[in-house]
Amino acid sequence: MTRILIIEDDTILSRLVVNWLEEAGMKPECVTSIREGFTRLNKADYDLILSDLRLPDGSGIKILDWINENRKQTPFIIMTKYGDVPTAVDAVKRGAVEFIEKPVHDIPLLEAIQKALDERAKNGGDTKIIKRVSKAYQQLVEKAELVAGYDLSVMIRGESGAGKEHIAHILHNKSTRRNKPFVKVDCATITKDLAPSILFGHEKGAFTGADTNATGLFHEAEGGTLYFDEIGNLPIEAQQVLLRVLQERKYIPLGGTKEVSCDVRVIAATNEDIEKAVNEGRFRFDLWQRVDEYTLEVPSLGDCPEDVLPLAEELLKRFNTEFHKSVEGFSDEAREKLQSHSWPGNIRELKNVIRCAIVENTGGLIDAGHLKFKAVPQKENTLALKDDEEERHKIEQALQKAGHNLTKASEILGISRPTLYKKMEAYSLK
Q1: What is the dihedral of CA 412, 418, 423, 425, to 10 degrees?
Q2: What is the end-to-end Cα distance of the chain in Å, rounded?
Q3: pLDDT of residue 127
Q4: In which element (H, E) is residue 184 found?
Q5: What is the DSSP-derived secondary structure letter of residue 202?
Q6: Cα separation of 318 and 29, whole Å?
Q7: Cβ(264)–Cβ(184) below 8 Å
Q8: DSSP one-letter code for 327
Q9: For residue 131, which of 166, 97, 178, 180 has the smallest C-alpha distance?
Q10: H or E element at residue 419
C-alpha cells in the first residue's frame, strides 16, 4: 500500500486530505511540524511526502533539502496559500515535483500524487547506477570517457529509460569539472514564464512577490555541469534565452542590470527526433548546433540482449535487500522469457518487471509466470505534435472524453502531461 507522509499544521485540511487518500486506497500519516516530520522520516520510508510550505517551526522546503542531501528519491509535493512565483521557482529548483495552491481540492491533488508516483515508478525509484556488459554499451562508455576531458557541449540521445543520465554523470565525473556541481534541469517543469528566473535567478522587486534575491541554475552550476534532461521539452521561449547565454557566456538576472559571467558545461539529453523537431519549428536550429557539438548514442536494451540477464541478477539482489526477501534466482524458463522480450521500456521496464516478480514470489526461484510485461501502446494512436487546427481539435476531444482529467487526456493523446499543459497553454485551452 502506498505510504504518504502529510506535514501540515492545519488539522482540518489534514483530515480532509487523509480521507481523500484513504478513499483512493493509500495509507496517509499526518504530522504537524518539521521536527515531527524528520522523526518519522528517520524511522520509516514513504512513497511520497505532501508538505505545507509554512509550518510552525520553519519552511517545508527544509524537508525537501533533507531528501536531496540524503539522496532519497521520494517525490515531494508542496502546498501553500502563498502561491507566488518565487516560491514556485525555488521549489522546482530544489526538486519538488508539484506545487499546489490552497485551497486544495481532491481531484487536482490526487492527480498530482498519481503523476508523481507514476514518474517514480518509471524511473525505477532510484538513480543508482547499474552496469551493462555488452560491447555496444562498453564502446559508448569509452567514447564518453574520451570526450569528457574536452569542454564540448554533448548531446546524449537514446530511448526513454535507456540510461542517458548515467552517461551524463560519466562525462562530469571524468572531466576537470568533477569537483564542481552537477546540476540537473528537468526541462518538462520549465514554463516560458518561469524560465528566466529558474535559469538565471532574479533580483528583489523583479516582479510581484519577488521579496528577496534568488540565484538561478546557472549560478548553482558555476564551474561545473548543467544537465538538461529531455531538452526537447523546453518551450521555444526558454530555448531563446538559453541560446543567448550559451553564445555570450553571460546573463542578467531577471530584474537586474549587471551582466554575470558564467563558466558552465552543458550536457543535454533527448529521446526525441531532434532533426524532426527542428524541421517542425519546435526546436531552434541554432540552439541544436550549440548543444550538440558532440553526440553520444545510448543503445537500447533490446539491441543489447547480452545485458539483460546480468542486469536482472543485479536488480534481484537490490530488490531482495529492499523488500527483505530471499528470492534465489531465475528458472530456465524465466531466463529464456527475459532474453526473448524486446524491452521497449529499456532498463526502466526491466526494473519494474523484476520488482513486481520479487513482490509476488513467496520463495525459491522466479519462474516465467512471475514475469509480467505491459502492452505497448501503438505509435499510430499518438498525437502528432505540430501546431495546427487538427491538433487543437484532438486535444479538445481528448479533454472532453476524459472529463477534463489531464492525466487521462494525456494518456488518450499519447503525450506526457507536461506536454499537454504546454499545448493547452499555446491554444488557450482551459
Answers
A1: 130
A2: 34
A3: 42
A4: strand 182-186
A5: B
A6: 27
A7: no
A8: -
A9: 166
A10: helix 417-426
25 forms beta bridges with none
CA pair distance 351, 367, nearest whole angstrom: 16
Do 125 and 73 form a contact (C-beta atoms < 8 A)? Answer: yes
pLDDT at 83: 55
pLDDT number for residue 210 = 64
- Between helix 135-148 and helix 164-173 the angle, nearest 10°, is 40
Query: Residues near 408 by Cβ (< 8 Å), separated by ≥ 6?
Result: 402
Give the three cell numbers for residue 425.
497553454
User: Strand, coil or helix: what is 108?
Assistant: helix
Triad 421, 424, 430: Cα angle to 5°: 105
CB-CB contact of 268 with 228 (8 Å): yes
C-alpha distances in Å from residue 43, one per residue of 37, 38, 46, 152: 10, 9, 10, 44
Look at phi and psi of residue 161 and say left if phi exceeds 0, alpha if psi is from -120 to 50, else beta: left
Instruction: Quick: pLDDT tens for 381-426.
Output: 444 444 567 778 888 888 887 777 776 777 678 776 657 776 787 7
Which DSSP symbol is given to 254?
Answer: B
Query: pLDDT tens-digit profile of 294-329?
Result: 999 999 998 899 999 999 998 998 888 878 888 989
**Mind listing the pLDDT tens digit for each residue in 24-66?**
888 999 999 999 999 999 888 888 999 998 899 988 889 988 8
